[in-house]
Amino acid sequence: MNEVLKINDVSKAYGKQTVLDKVNLSLEQGEILGLVGPNGAGKTTLMKIITGLIKKYDGDVFIEDENIRDNKKHNTKQIGCVIETPGFYPELTGYENLLFFAEISGLKDKSEIDEIVKKLGIESYVNKKAKKYSLGMKQRLGVAQAVLSYPPVLVLDEPTNGLDPAIVPQFRKFIKYMAEEKHTTVLISSHILSEIELMCDKVAFIQEGKIIKIENLNKSEKDNAVIAFVTSKSEELKSFFNNKKINYKILDKDKIQAQLNPEELENLVLSIAKENIPLKSVYEVKESLEQKYLKTMGDEQNA
Ligand SMILES: Nc1ncnc2c1ncn2[C@@H]1O[C@H](COP(=O)(O)OP(=O)(O)O)[C@@H](O)[C@H]1O
Ligand SMILES: [Mg+2]
Hints:
Helix content is 32%, strand content 28%. By secondary structure, it is an alpha/beta fold. It folds into two domains: 3-216, Rossmann fold (3-Layer(aba) Sandwich), CATH 3.40.50; 225-284, Alpha-Beta Plaits, CATH 3.30.70.120.
């Protein structure tokens, strides 16, 4: 696959405070990566480095194999971004603002603007003056502006901040459309995992400037599922697992969970039945990302 954005051992300190500590990330073309972490974790700082807003840092950032330090043009064509509250010309309408940005980014086909406006669902207010916009309206106009020239990389810092929850699904759909149809590589941050979980291919957890875990959301860990077995004969089931050398954990007096390859499940259930161990229920225990996140953060704090 085509690596579009590469972050190599990026560190940043303010005075004595290390804000980013050897961050490594790699994003492929059309991939959506969520950067999730509590306030102060370093998300905005990392995004500012990638977009060239912060120039003093250790390590390297490559966009399409080019080190951004060597790119004098500041990768304006390579990156679209919304970091913090986007600024607009207050006396112009949203549409006029977009036209202006289209002009300076060299966009020839103005019909693209209409398409983006429609896909983002901002038609209802795009002809009002920007000074009248709420935070959520500005955020979405900011996203429209960021994608105008279809940059290969899109960086969005907490874009769902201030968004009406009813709008979030359409926003998610738009980001997925950009990634799938326009092959845009997207880096998106949030301190609320559930908000971006649904639109990302991967989630990187960041805490105190360190990436502590990267979770792949698309590829389920197929060869390793946690299966719960409910039975009135748990003692028998335990010895069965012992004999088969299957690792298990007792959840309840009649509930045992084991980690195994789901492809082996059918045969396993048959063998359990042959041993005359009745099963009331067999199901996969799915850990939500929220639980994983809390566990990861907890482990880190206890370390
Ligand atoms: N310009 C700055 N000067 C000093 N400290 C800063 C500056 N910008 C950010 N920080 C500190 O860096 C840390 C990370 O901030 P930030 O990247 O904004 O986190 P996040 O976006 O994850 O909430 C925080 O402790 C913050 O106070
Ligand atoms: Mg931030």
